[in-house]
Design a protein that fits this description.
six-stranded parallel sheet; 6 strands; mainly beta
Length: 107
């Protein structure tokens, strides 16, 4: 299945499902149950990302509450409030943390 987990409580919710994912950092990917091509790197990066995939979340709290597919969040708290949209790219300190609900955004 090729899942790598490093960090206290990282990937805690994982079941036997999932492929090609890495969780690195305290509670990174904490709630994820079926990781499908996810990179969560940083304190609580991708914390609430349940059954989605194709996401990259790098930085403390990046994508912390994200629950959709195909997004890239890089930076401290980047995309942390984005819960209902997908296909986004947010790069920078608090980028996209305003909770925008539209899909396919870049900031």
């Amino acid at each position: 299945f090729f899942i790598q987990i490093f960090g206290d409580n990282a990937g805690t919710g994982l079941t036997s499902e999932g492929h090609y994912s890495t969780f690195f950092g305290y509670q990174a990917g904490f709630s994820n149950t079926t990781a499908e091509r996810i990179l969560s790197f940083g304190y609580k990066a991708g914390y609430s990302n349940l059954t989605t995939g194709l996401n990259v979340m790098i930085g403390s709290g990046a994508g912390e509450n994200h629950t959709q597919w195909s997004s890239t969040y890089i930076g401290y708290q980047a995309g942390n409030s984005n819960t209902t949209s997908e296909g986004n790219t947010y790069i920078g300190y608090f980028a996209g943390s305003d909770g925008t609900m539209d899909s396919d955004n870049s900031k």
